């Protein structure tokens, strides 16, 4: 029997390949749809990410958001993320794993998070990159407040089934170029 770690590793490999093909082929991104999902949260603090490699870019939605915007900052392995205030014109530097972070950091706590992912299923589950950063972060934030987690993906990243652990945190929305999925929690 193949263990869970091996199943997750294979699922990530397969999903990365699907995402790369979608990234190269898809002419539209779900930014308009994402902006619609974000509309009720326009004054809330939004966490998003500066895209890397084949991730869908949320930058247009970040720039259009009327509340504070922040980006994740990895502190160390095995810890939750912290979030630094971000504006489109600020100086950025390379952080952990090559992620771009503000040169001068002011930490804030987000109300809404746009979460990168490798794969997702029809139940609002996500497969991340394997570090557990977003799972720990969402778990910590959800203990003390209501937060909204939005997965941003290509439809090609959909999986019929994902290998899950008890610590995996579900999403409230998944936005793709084809549709928006909403999950009640």
TrEMBL record:
**Residues the record lists as binding ATP:** 8-12, 126-134
Q: Which species is the source of this protein?
A: Falsihalocynthiibacter arcticus
Q: Key word Metal-binding present in the record?
A: yes
Write out the catalysed reaction.
Answer: (6S)-5-formyl-5,6,7,8-tetrahydrofolate + ATP = (6R)-5,10-methenyltetrahydrofolate + ADP + phosphate
SUPFAM superfamilies xref list: NagB/RpiA/CoA transferase-like
Q: Give the protein's recorded name.
A: 5-formyltetrahydrofolate cyclo-ligase
* Keyword ATP-binding applies: yes
Return the similarity comment: Belongs to the 5-formyltetrahydrofolate cyclo-ligase family.
Pfam families under this entry? 5-FTHF_cyc-lig
Which keywords does this chain's UniProt record carry? ATP-binding, Ligase, Magnesium, Metal-binding, Nucleotide-binding
Q: What does the record list as GO biological process?
A: folic acid-containing compound biosynthetic process; tetrahydrofolate interconversion
Task: Return the EC number.
Answer: 6.3.3.2
Q: Which cofactor does it need?
A: Mg(2+)
Q: Where does substrate bind?
A: 50, 55
Q: GO molecular-function annotation terms?
A: 5-formyltetrahydrofolate cyclo-ligase activity; ATP binding; metal ion binding
